[in-house]
Write a structure and sequence with these properties.
Elements lengths: L3 E5 L3 H12 L6 E3 L15 H55 L4 E6 L12 H17 L6 E4 L3 E9 L5 H4 L7 H10 L13 E10 L4
Helix pairs in contact: 1-2, 2-5
Length: about 220
């Protein structure tokens, strides 16, 4: 059961860097208070310390993913362009995403989106709700939406939005603009690919950091 949601702010620079991580793969101060459901809403109210811990771990785990996967993808783009980046993504994206969470106690990291490239990144019901809300906010405000925290029974989910940047369009834009080599690489690596047809500034997806709030 989801108990409530925090909406957070984050710098546009951080979002741009993190979007590069997501593009080839298949936080700041609170701006709003939690909304609670159920008869025991007050009892489930997260403390300031819990909010700080979840936010800090969300930022740190996202940074760990950016440094590992993002570094490999940047190197691949420089050495072999989008086709090489697709190859690196296929081999390394899921293991490096998991490893980013394993570096922290009680943390798990995954990436998800409404339009998957790798079916392993498909959203669950809570993910989908957050993604749809963020996509709507981005479309209405013409600006990146704020990260949010979803508070559940024993886990807090930190969601960080990833927006389409110019470089992302090389693999996620109009398929008609792709080279034959890239089109073939995508078909070979991701036969169920849905992650094309994006426009600049649209929501690509999120990095989700799950924090075990039962741990001190």
């Amino acid at each position: 059961m989801t108990y409530g949601r925090n909406v957070l702010s984050v710098s546009s620079v951080a979002l741009a860097v993190l979007t590069l991580v997501f593009a080839f793969s298949g936080c700041g101060e609170e701006k709003s208070s939690d909304s609670k459901t159920g008869d025991n809403a007050a009892a489930s109210e997260p403390s300031d310390a819990e909010r700080r811990r979840v936010t800090e771990l969300g930022q740190e785990a996202s940074e760990a993913l950016m440094q590992s996967l993002g570094g490999q993808l940047k190197a691949a783009m420089q050495s072999g362009g989008p086709v090489q980046a697709i190859s690196v993504c296929r081999q390394a994206a899921l293991p490096l995403t998991a490893a980013a969470g394993e570096s922290f106690d009680g943390v798990a990291v995954r990436r998800t989106t409404l339009k998957t490239r790798n079916p392993a990144n498909a959203p669950d019901a809570t993910d989908r709700e957050v993604l749809e809300s963020m996509a709507s906010a981005a479309a209405q405000n013409a600006a990146p939406p704020d990260p949010v925290i979803e508070w559940q029974d024993d886990v807090a989910r930190f969601y960080r939005p990833l927006m389409m940047q110019e470089i992302c369009l090389k693999c996620h834009g109009d398929p008609a603009s792709f080279s034959p080599e890239l089109t073939q690489a995508l078909a070979d690596s991701y036969p169920d690919d849905q992650a094309t047809g994006y426009a600049l500034g649209e929501l690509r997806g999120v990095i989700r950091v799950d924090v075990d709030i039962a741990k001190p």
